[in-house]
Amino acid sequence: MSGFRAFKAKVPIEWSQSLYITLVRGLPGTRKLHRRTLEAMGLRRCHRTVLHSNNSSIRGMINQVKRMVVVETEEMYNARKEAEAKHKALRPPLVVSHSSPATDSSNIS
């Protein structure tokens, strides 16, 4: 599943007090107007998330660059972060042993 569909909002954003906005598409090749809009929202790199209050100006900016960003409510963002932490906790730590094989002096000819 692509990153864009994984974060796609399932709840209308008008109901939420604050919005978590994540940039999921890269900036190269985009229009200058879109790059300036993303910079005004504080999104300069891909997969970075910023928190904004939900007002009409922010929703207008989101609408302008809606193909490049994903909008989440606070509950959705917390659930995603909790799921990511749980997934990381499932993997055991990687242990590497760098012991050299034992050399027996009686076998040396």
UniProtKB/TrEMBL annotation:
Superkingdom field: Eukaryota
Entry keywords, A to Z: Ribonucleoprotein, Ribosomal protein
Residue numbers spanned by region Disordered: 83-109
Pfam families, A to Z: Ribosomal_L30
GO MF, one example: structural constituent of ribosome
Biased composition (Polar residues): 97-109
Keyword Ribonucleoprotein attached: yes
Domain Large ribosomal subunit protein uL30-like ferredoxin-like fold, residue spans: 20-69
GO cellular component: large ribosomal subunit; mitochondrion
Keyword check for Lyase: no
Biological processes annotated in GO: translation
PANTHER family for this protein: LARGE RIBOSOMAL SUBUNIT PROTEIN UL30M, MITOCHONDRIAL RIBOSOMAL PROTEIN L30
NCBIfam families from the UniProt entry: rpmD_bact
Protein name: Large ribosomal subunit protein uL30m
